[in-house]
Amino acid sequence: MEMAGSDAVNMSKTYSLNMFKDFVPMCVFSETSQASVFILGGKVAMEGKVEHKFDMKPHGENIEEYGKLCRERTNKSMIKNRQIQVIDNDRGVLMRPMPGMIGLVSSNAKDKKKTQPVKQSDTKRTRRDRGELEDIMFKLFERQPNWALKQLVQETDQPAQFLKEILNELCVYNKRGANQGTYELKPEYKKSVEDTSAE
User: Fold this and answer.
1) Count of Cβ atoms closer than 10 Å to residue 62 Cβ
2) Side-chain-side CA neighbours of residue 163 (13 Å)
3) What percent of the chain has a predicted confidence (pLDDT) above 90?
4) Which pLDDT value is given to residue 39?
5) 3-state secondary structure of 175
6) According to DSSP H, which parts of 37-108 are helical?
């Protein structure tokens, strides 16, 4: 195949054309602002289906010219269009905020993202020995009969998940009533705690 009207300097004029039928089926759509009978809603219409795919490849004798063209395109895309403008106004009038500019939100991402101090609850807690923690729990329940999970995490400085495991063994969770959302010792442990406190 030969391209007509290719006057570009390094543009290859002869190509080999390969046709394929096995590719993902596609449709061609057109967009217009005029309403017509065939156009849905006056905006988009299906023009047809693509049944063949063609790949163009420059012939062997033109491959060097085509290579030059590709390098030129790459070099043009790498050229930056930025310009430096020198401001003659040495008094900085152009840089001063004008009326109405005060209170505008900064577009700088660094200003938006303020670093927040790490909370005590976010730091990793180390697990104590299970027996030691159970003793601490009994002492806490001697002091106060009902505890919320948050309070126990603060008092014991243990991971909440580990604390829940032990609470499920030792305590009853109050879902209703005056002490809703708190833990209290199971009846069998209450007696032993009362006995030790009486001695």
Assistant:
1) 16
2) 19
3) 8
4) 47
5) coil
6) 63-78
Token pair 């180390």: residue: 126
Helices (H), 106-170: 109-112, 130-143, 149-156, 160-170
**Is pLDDT at 21 greater than 50 in this prediction?**
yes
Q: How many CB atoms lie within 10 A of CB 178?
A: 7
User: Can you tell me the distance from the alpha carbon of 19 to that of 56, in angstroms, rounded to the nearest whole number?
Assistant: 9
pLDDT per position as a tens digit, 74-124: 998 888 877 787 777 666 666 666 676 665 555 555 555 555 555 555 567
In this predicted model, what pLDDT tens digit does every residue of 130-156 receive, in sequence order?
888 888 888 998 998 999 999 999 888
Which of 43, 41, 8, 11 has its CA nearest to residue 29?
43
- Which SS3 state, helix, strand or coil, does residue 48 take? strand
CA gap 29, 77 in Å, rounded = 30
Question: Is residue 1 helix, strand or coil?
Answer: coil
pLDDT at site 40: 52
Contact 162, 130 (CB under 8 A): no
Mean pLDDT of 184-194: 76
Start-to-end CA distance of the chain, whole Å, equals 106
Q: Which fold has domain 125-198?
A: Arc Repressor Mutant, subunit A (1.10.10)
Domain ranges of the chain: 15-78, 125-198
Q: Which amino acid belongs to residue 30?
A: S
